[in-house]
Amino acid sequence: MNYWLHRISHLAELSYPLLEKGYLTIGFSDLINHELIDKVLEDDWDYFNSQFQKVWNNVPRTRHNLWNFLKFQKGDLVIVPSWGTFFICEIVDDRPFLIGETFSEDLKSWGNKNVTTNGVHLLKEDGKAYDLGFARKVNVLYRDVSRDKFADAKLTARMKIRQTNAQINDLKTSIETSIENYKVDKPIHLHSIIIDKTASLVLDSIQNELNPDKFEKLVKTYFKTIGANEVSIPAKNESGKEGDADIVAVFESIKLIIYTQAKFQKGQISEWGTNQVLEYRTKKESIDDGYNKIAWVITTANTFNENAENLAKQNEIQLVNGIEFSKMLLNAGVTMLNTSF
Fold first, then answer.
1. Judging by DSSP bridges, how do beta strands 134-146 and 247-251 pair with one another?
2. Do 254 and 170 meet the contact criterion of CB atoms below 8 Å apart?
3. pLDDT by residue (tens digit) across 198-212?
4. DSSP 8-class letter at 237
5. Which residues contact 278 (CB under 8 A, 6 or more apart)?
6. Phi/psi at 201 (5° precision)
7. Domains plus CATH for the chain?
8. What is the pLDDT of residues 52-84, one digit of tens each?
9. Concatenated DSSP letters for 131-166?
């Protein structure tokens, strides 16, 4: 059994009603066909890529989200984040469904709007197709589970990733503990209170006691503490370098690399760092080494400007402001701060 995170970030007005009926969904409506499902289940990566090239004229990195979704296996547990809550679902099908196969006469979207089908797609009242392509049959084991009350620090942090889905087997203990606590109504209260009240003090100390170089070392220590196998600070004069990353953290067990820009600033920061780490990640993505590569910007500043936020949303970049990073440090453990930076 595997553990997954799958975000409903697309067409929530229909995706959530379908989830209530036991169907977890994803987009890619222009790729609907049974052969694609068959080929993915046969691990035919070349065919899968060729379909994107044929239909979209490019092979986007977001294709990994569809591949993962189609590869969910019966018995896998899927965490589905929502607004301040999350669902815990179990995959119960033997193979994925095409979206048209989820249709039922009583299916309605938010606002009590009728949903119909043309046999392939699900349709809006005006006859336009919803951009949903595939579904998995799930048993919703637990719904509307409070993040604040029942998700520990590691699970809470992972639910903030911007990509649509990811394997989270490394959080098995966190997930199982959350389930047990939810079943007996044993919320995490004190932890949340202490973190919220202490974060501003931590941030103030970071801003007043460290400098840019020491802040980079603090970020590096954080990644080591949360389980990175290797953390490095790339040379500033790296040959053939495009963009920039201050810290590279490798999580071997989950085949994940996080490229991070560390910005030691106050107030609001611009999109410059976001652009730099995006260019750096884009360059590294050309290396087919089996690792999922994501980008972060961690800052001591309070906020990011609108351009940075929009760029991050469009390119699945995680933005972490000063207070959020301070909470992450506290969640990782106070003992990690017992280091000379």
1. unpaired
2. yes
3. 999 999 999 999 999
4. T
5. 243, 295, 311, 315, 317
6. -70, -40
7. 3-183 (no CATH), 197-337 (3.40.1350.10)
8. 999 999 999 999 999 999 999 999 999 999 988
9. S--EEEEEEEEEEEEEHHHH--HHHHHHTT--SSEE
